[in-house]
Amino acid sequence: MRKKACAQKQTKRESWNYDVNCLRERDSEGRTPLHIAIANNHTTIINLLLLHPDIDLSLRDRAGASPFYTALSVRNNEAARRILELLPSAAEQFDSRGKNFLHLAIQKGDIESVLFLLSVNVDVNSRVQDSIQNTPLHLAAVQPNDLLVRNLLLAGARIDERNNHKKTALHVATEVGNTEVISALLQNGTDYNAADCEGKVLYKYTLFTLPE
Fold first, then answer.
1. Average pLDDT over residues 91-115
2. Could you give the CA distance from residue 140 to residue 146 in angstroms, rounded to a whole number?
3. Could you list the residue ranges that cross the membrane (predicted)?
4. Are residues 31 and 107 in the same domain?
């Protein structure tokens, strides 16, 4: 009986090790077993799937979500970290609009996801792959509070980086009247004499008080 049980375990182990098809099966939403396990926080199953040598971490569901994106969406940071250990480029993947996970998290005002991404050292100066080429700091400049901007700066964001309209984050914050972000940028030494592509210099058309 013991030999039979061992043989059955060995057969299951061999099937697990070599049958890749089960890893790539999809449900009606295009989700793989890994997507589903992550979405439901099934830690044991997640760990087993990630141990498989043929796991494909680039597969996306019908909504375009990768396993890493799914992990971020459900706040499963442990699964996200495990995925990054296996596929370091997972956090830098761009969607069809040229945005990566940091860009999307900033635009959603999702400070928790932003802090996680900064903790795993994503490129804090990565640009949106479109005609404007905004940096994460440009995107954060229109958000309603200054937490995103301050954390990006602490992580190494270049404060006076310009987009393709020659605008810095301060230009962007000024255009939308974002006083908290304007203050944060000034406190961190941004160049308020910088001119944009139209030749506008910030101190000539802003209402905030500049430092002496």
1. 92
2. 8
3. none
4. no
